[in-house]
Amino acid sequence: MIVEDASSLKEINxxxxxxxxxxxxxxxxxxCTILEASDKPVIGADEYVFILPYKIKVPARVDTGAATTxxxxxxxxxxxxxxxxxxxxxxxxxxxxxxxxxxxxIRSSGSRERRPVVEMELCIASKRLRARVNLNDRSxxxxxxxxxxxxxxxxxxxxxxxxxxxxxxxxxxxxxE
Length: 177
Fold this sequence. Notes:
Layout: H1 6-38, E1 42-52, E2 56-62, E3 69-72, E4 74-79, E5 82-86, E6 95-99, E7 102-108, E8 111-124, E9 127-136, E10 145-147, H2 149-152, E11 157-163
């Protein structure tokens, strides 16, 4: 390209400046996103969750529409700031007592109910994490646990075309049944 004078050089430089900045920004943003995403395990729409320290493995539905995680808790009994309950996968008489960290109103199927929220240690795929879980009788539901956004956000990538992608850590331990 032959440049006749300095003014035409300025026109060329200014016309290429904005696209170059945009491409540089997009390249940086995309590479950061890809690097960030690759650190997160991919989980499917259905996954096994290992509930610690109780050594219980339950199937769970990953629900990106649900704000919070919910667990099937039977025979719920609240006394002060603690809750006692049983899990359907535990032998009869194996009650769990844990502190209540909050109470939340949860909307489901057109109704709204107040549920106790507890902290539990969970293993999903290769991650072990503490999460707030609301307790509710889910005996009429297909899955005893719903994994909500409070667990998935920042921890996992969800691929709804997959199911039971990775057994949880601790899966080789006794199930406690």
